[in-house]
Design a protein that fits this description.
The chain is built from 19 helices and 7 strands. With 364 residues, it is of the alpha+beta class. Helix 7 runs parallel beside helix 10, helix 8 packs antiparallel against helix 9 and helix 14 packs across helix 15.
């Protein structure tokens, strides 16, 4: 899967980018909800009202016609949509504004299915699963064990130059939904971002009522793991099942079945004991020969996907302060440290020791 793979359901993206449906067209409401005093409110409102959906999509290379929702777009096209919206509204911080405007209902049936789960743990697991299926360029991972629990967001495909847009939108939106579900008195411990503080960093602190940290190893919302079994106020298994059924009846599910993405997710879960191609194929419900053929048809291979996962985990290991090349080589299943060093140089153009000396700066 790469930036031009058509893997994002257009119907899902319309949830975010149909501005005229998503906003109440009253500027005092927009300013109150965004917590930003706008210098040109009438101009921004006129821009929102004046956006023609067909023109908006076609400028992003999407041959869109009204009602043409059962199709997929690429990450490159999605980034073009973001670029248009940011430029039209003059808001480099648009991700924060949109995220703060969104409630669970703005996430459509995916949001309904998530907030009607019995517990917060199941809600977070549902959010992660829907992210895999509806927006494969991002990965969400929830861990609610130990003293602290977290919802972590990372890129499967680089979303530059708008990585911050997607991190902002999702962290603000899910932070607010989290507080709504568990009660305002149970605030998150902190919110961490994997990139340097942008020029509009002060706006982050308007939206998060907790510490906000930048230049961190990863982007995540951190809270009390004891809330994992908190019974959600909207819990209703029948409604959750009905919402999910409606969701996938109305949004095509090819993204969910995109084989390289499924394989990579599985490999991430097997960290420290990666399966052979044959065992991976069995886990995915097919023969090794079929897996090899289907990956080839998608322009990749088992080894390429394994290398992508190993590279991601190696970078995370070093970003979190790990310094033992021997340790990370063993953790990633290499025969020895020299084999790992050779692979790492192929991935990054640097030896592990050079990488450690100049550790990568926070990524946008």
């Amino acid at each position: 899967m790469d930036i031009d793979t058509e893997c994002i359901p257009l119907g899902h993206m319309q949830t975010y980018f149909d501005l005229r449906k998503g906003l109440v067209l009253k500027m005092d409401w927009l300013e109150r909800r965004s917590q930003i005093r706008l210098n040109n409110p009438d101009e921004i409102l006129d821009t929102i009202i004046g956006i023609n959906p067909e023109t908006f999509y076609r400028k992003a290379g999407i041959d869109y016609r009204d009602g043409d929702d059962a199709r997929f777009i690429s990450t490159r096209q999605c980034l073009a949509l973001v670029d248009q919206a940011v430029r039209a509204l003059g808001m480099p911080y648009l991700g924060l504004v949109m995220g703060n405007l969104m409630t669970a209902s703005h996430h459509g049936m995916a949001g309904m299915a998530a907030v009607t789960q019995p517990t917060l743990r199941e809600c977070m697991e549902t959010v992660c699963r829907y992210c895999d299926e509806l927006f494969p360029p991002l990965e969400m991972k929830a861990d609610m064990n130990g003293g602290e629990g977290y919802l972590e967001i990372s890129e499967v495909i680089p979303l530059r130059p708008y990585s911050h847009f997607f991190y902002e939108l999702n962290t603000v939106s899910f932070y607010n939904i989290f507080l709504h579900l568990v009660g305002e008195g149970r605030d998150a411990f902190r919110v961490e971002f994997s990139y340097p503080e942008p020029e509009w960093g002060h706006i982050y602190r308007r939206y998060f009522r907790c510490p906000v940290l930048f230049d961190q190893p990863c982007t995540r919302i951190v809270g009390d793991a004891a809330l994992a079994d908190f019974e959600l106020p909207l819990a209703n298994r029948l409604m959750a099942m009905s919402a999910e059924k409606t969701l996938f009846e109305n949004i095509p599910t090819r993204a969910m079945r995109l084989l390289p993405v499924r394989l990579r997710r599985m490999l991430m879960r097997c960290y420290g004991a990666f399966p052979s191609l044959e065992n991976a194929a069995s886990e995915l419900g097919m023969s090794g020969r079929t897996l090899r053929r289907k990956l080839s048809e998608s322009g990749t291979s088992y080894q390429q996907e394994l290398d992508a996962v190993r590279q991601k985990l190696a970078r995370e290991y070093f970003a979190r302060g790990g310094e033992s090349v021997t340790e990370v080589a063993m953790m990633l299943g290499f025969a020895d440290s020299s084999a790992f060093a050779k692979a790492f140089r192929r991935w990054t153009g640097m030896s592990p020791s050079d990488y450690l000396m100049g550790r990568e700066p926070g990524r946008m």
